[in-house]
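FAQ: What does the model actually see?

It sees only this:
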Amino acid sequence: MTFEIERKFLVTSTDYKQLAYKKSYIKQGFLNSKKERVVRVRIKDNAGFLTIKGASNKSGTTRFEWEKEIDLKEAQDLFNLCEEGIIEKYRYLVKENNHTFEVDEFIGENTGLIVAEIELEDENENFTTPNWLGKEVTGIVEYYNSNLSKLPFSKW
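And it is asked to produce this:
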């Protein structure tokens, strides 16, 4: 089984944009958004992906994740089967020592929300926290993309 261990933070400034080595456009929808299993279709730039995620552990840092690249046309077609609420965002990749932060700047109904994620090898792994990182929101379900698709940030 493949597990992802990640922590999530709010972002307090746009300083990350100058540090980013890559920027991508992401559109994603959910074929299933139950907390026990999330099935997501994503288009990242010009590539399609299908992802299945399991429920998070108690701390919200660790969960099963399976992802496969799929044909772009198939990904586009799967959007017709998605639940209501599509997420759109720009993702910036920022290297900080031995780690990479994925900074998601949401657009559409989630405009104004900027969240940074870092994937770790171990839940207790140390990492450098850049000055643009704010409050940790790991495990707070309102910040899960599957929940943002149902209750966008603009309606909080």
